[in-house]
């Protein structure tokens, strides 16, 4: 299949521990600003190589994500390939696996401005860029994303989304949930699941 005829698909990875309204705004901005993208693969990681190991069981992450995407009209699929892979979740391995499994697709990677800032420290980052169409960077706290000088040579691979600034991170939300389940900013279906399964309370 020629490159022109391949289906453009977004790859949105992260902890999603738990998913929150910031993730919703990222997805809405992506579909709006990249209209030729047919769908998005949400791929929760097992362990971010640059962060501490997650405490939430993989099955709970998947169930929360299924609840999270239930109201989306766009086509979103949740893949558990990183949760099934032991050890740190390296994006280069994920991209290589997706290209093998979905040869009819090409991929756009969604990352936050914090990951853009350290992208040159990712494992085999140049190989990632070789195997995807582009990287879409979303804002977290900055009105304008600072340029990473280490990526200047590959600037044509990066585009920047004009998404609303993210009101909360998963880390902050976990703290809120430990403090007060009632006031934490999560959708009601997620709140019920978190409370029922006693997540983030310890």
Give a structural overview.
With 202 residues, this protein is an alpha/beta fold. Helix content is 34%, strand content 17%. It has helices at 21-33, 58-68, 81-84, 91-101, 113-117, 125-130, 170-179, 188-196; strands at residues 7-14, 39-44, 75-78, 105-112, 134-138, 158-160. α2 (58-68) links the parallel β2 and β3. The longest helix is centred in the first third of the chain and has 13 residues, at 21-33. The mean pLDDT is 90.
- Strand composition percent: 15-25%
Give the SSE order as H and E letters: EHEHEHHEHHEEHH
Q: Strand sequence of the main sheet, in spatial order?
A: 3-2-1-4-5-6
Helix percentage: 25-40%
**Low-confidence parts lasting 5 or more residues at pLDDT below 50?**
none
Structural class: alpha/beta
Whole-angstrom Rg:
17 Å
Distance between the termini: 51 Å
> How does the overall form come out from the CA principal axes?
globular
Tell me the major beta sheet.
6 strands, parallel
Task: Provide a count of the helices.
Answer: 8
Average residue pLDDT: 90
Number of strands: 6
